[in-house]
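User: New here, please read:
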Amino acid sequence: MMRLPALALAMLALLALGPVAPAILGFTAASGARERFEEGRFIDLPSAHGALEHAGAIGARPHYAGTRADRALAVYTADRLREYGFDTRIEAFTARVDTPRKLAVELFADGRPFTPRDGFHKQRGTPPLGFDLREDGEPNDPDTLVDAVGLPFNAGSADGDVTAPLVYARRGMPEDFATLRRAGVDLRGAIVLIRYGGAFRGQLVQNAQAAGAIGAILYNDPADDGAARGATYPSGPWRPLKSTQRGSLGAGIRIPTLPISAENARTLLRALRGPSGPAGWAGALDAPYPLGRGPAAVHLVVRMNHETRTLWNTVGTLRGTEPSQSVVLGAHRDAWVYGVSDNGAGTIAILETARGLGYLARSGWRPRRSLVIALFDGEELGLLGSASFARTHPELQQGCVAYLNGGQNLTGTTFGASAVGALTPAIVAATLAVPDPAHERSNLYDRWSAQPRGITVGNPGDGSDHEAFLFRFGTPMAEMGFAGPFGPYHSSYDTLRYAWTFSDPGFVLHRTNAQLYGIVAMRLADADAITYVFSALLPVLNSGIARVQARAQRDGRTIDVAPLRTAIAAFAAAARGTDDAIARGAGPDAARTLAAVQEIDRVAYGVHDYESVAFPAVAAAYASGEDAAVRDAVAVAAAAIARATAELR
């Protein structure tokens, strides 16, 4: 997480002064006054009622990628954008879509094979216990009971029909498999039971493969997002025992993999024997969590349909006076089931933002830079829609000044944001212009600053549609929203009833999200100088070097980061002058400004297992153990920072 740099804090101190309206970053005095007027008109346009209407359409039926319901929602969102005045199209593309053909889990509690009695032989062994893999559904939430909910599965699983001893492998991390090996547990040829949460689910399965497992079963333990955390749905927001987390595994999976409920996992755990594991090994189910292999064996069957299907991105454009430049607002539209929170919430925010922006445009306002709304398909299967959009529109690298991502961003009441450093001050300043619906005569900035961690902006992580922009083009990104307990993640319980009852009663925060996205988008689109603060990139650069050096010191290695320090020092001096000019609405032209920020973003930001990593190429080179590779990576990063510095001079 990144604290605001001194320049940003000074700017915000000025912004908080009254009664004179503070200057807006990137605007001259005259254009800033016009911007304030248009923002004043915009702020009343997004509505809770409009957000609820969109939620009703999104939550009407399951809309997994490539289905008829998914196509219908693409048409719905396109119709809304046209209605709001956007030049709208549906961009079709094809991709692999997995659906289940046969899924089964059977438990042989004593580990012995079963042979039924026939006319020549007696029965041998005990008949297996077959599992019901469906989620039970909630009678008070009829949407969870319909047949279209389907069986939970993991897209990307390998096909397989295997029977093998069962091993509980905690979170499926390398250290967990090492713990089992030290205890003498043979993982080769086993089926492993893994708790979600240690890393990306596909990485957990790859860890199991590397350990010698021939099958994997994934589940959510109540210790992590269920009854051990609080009341479960429908009484509270946490995951009930019968809920199952679906999800994509990504590439490289060679073993059959299936998600199950905690209730089914409890039955499997009760069939295991062995000594207790170390501290933290067990979860919260009333069952043992042993270090052992069997005696239970599991029969696991996964047969998938691997089809090439058509998917649909919905794209709307509000053309600016300088159309070669753009601001893109994006969210994914597909879901594992209903997805009213994931990712209905992001889609709703972007649609309500578009409704307000379209009204302004019809009444005379026109942005300087074009505003593009992109509602992506196939995110849940591996960011397919945003990747297709980026491939189809390479012009984004030269003209897209920012990407605002509407991810899974409304599951509670705690406000937060993540962004690249260059956008951080603009995001924070925009919260001053958005009212807090919970407190009269207060704004979102006040709400944020009163939270325990205060005004803290996270660095971009992994697993959402900003990757196609930030990691491909270096486009600055930001994401804002409200967080809280969200037990129904990737389950059939992510419904309209859940969202209305627990995430946002009244849908007032959905409106607030739309207001904030709109203010940020307007300022980025209308500014005389693109609203970057280059000195706000320094914390991630300096902390990245510090982390690399600290790791080397722990490992007893020596690496030379002097070229990076020299490049960063020169960049810092150039950034100060550029920031002063941008604040007045001047500074380098848009092409040079964008080129500079892209150079920094491409070398400074990366991810590993959903977590942000500074200087990812240097980190990867360090992990290789090759000193020459580290020197080369440091030189490449330093050269990129030097090119950014040259653009600012």
Remarks:
- Residues 10-20 have pLDDT under 50 and may be disordered.
- Residues 534-648 form a domain with the Transcription Elongation Factor S-II; Chain A fold (CATH 1.20.930.40).
- The first helix runs from residue 6 to 15.
